User: Fold EamA domain-containing protein from Pseudomonas oryzihabitans.
Amino acid sequence: MTATQAIPFKRDRSLATLAMIGSAACWGLATVASRDLLEQVPAATLLPIQLLASLLFLAILASRASRRPASWPLLLRTAWPGVLEPGLAYGIGLAGLSLTSAGHAAVIGSAEPMFIVLLGWLLLRQRPRRRLLACLLSTVIGLSLIGLCGSETGNSATSLRGDLLIVLGTLFAAGYVIASSRLANLYPPASLALVQQGAGLLFILTLQGVIVAAGFATPRWDALDKAVIAEAALSGVLQYALPFWLYLLGLRHLSAASAGLYLALIPVFGLVAAFLWLDERPTMGMLLGAALILASIAVARRYT
Assistant:
């Protein structure tokens, strides 16, 4: 690579890094916002509102950001990862978030880079080095500390079941990263995020229709205040539209493993926001678990 070629390459990598940091900031802050909203809106009602707002924002962004029209018939074939995330990941994750704290969710979500490596090994036969496996083990220990130590929250709403649901949702999110890493360079990020989130919303609405038809739940759309709906819509842009667009933008210049490591920044934003906004005070054990996860990811970066 010549010096002239290296300048645009470094610039692209720098922009990708900034995009990844921005996506992590959005996800960390949005986790806290959603946790606050779940006190007023059931998870089954909140998610469709957030996704509808996100789709509207992405549609506007895609129409303005794309220099060339996307081939929509081909683009729709790339929509299926949206079933993994936001469909399954956030459908399960919001249910878990309603049972645990925003701080727990943010820190547990930081294990996603390790899950990406693990799924890449199982699904793509990309076997990691032994040192990377050691990092994965220490991440699991960190997760255990977070789940067992609890946190000193204002409402003491921590639950091991909620933590386990967050872990399961994070696994689906890792699957989304692996699937989308091969698609990010094919289409504009906003257009790709639009069709994937459309697929996720369709999956969520279909699942909810089955649940309502079976008599397990009844939607509460009429009981929502307009101010709450507006807040939910804004949180949807923060949690889905902006971070997914930024993440897919970063994936154009980074590998899935490299991009996933930046997700370790989510608890940094999430824990601070949870402390300032929700008065969630982490215990020493939770902080130790968070530090162990972040240290593991920092070391693992050398081997991905």
In short: The longest helix spans residues 3-37. Residues 7-303 form one domain. Confidence is low (pLDDT under 50) at residues 2-7. The chain has one domain: 7-303.
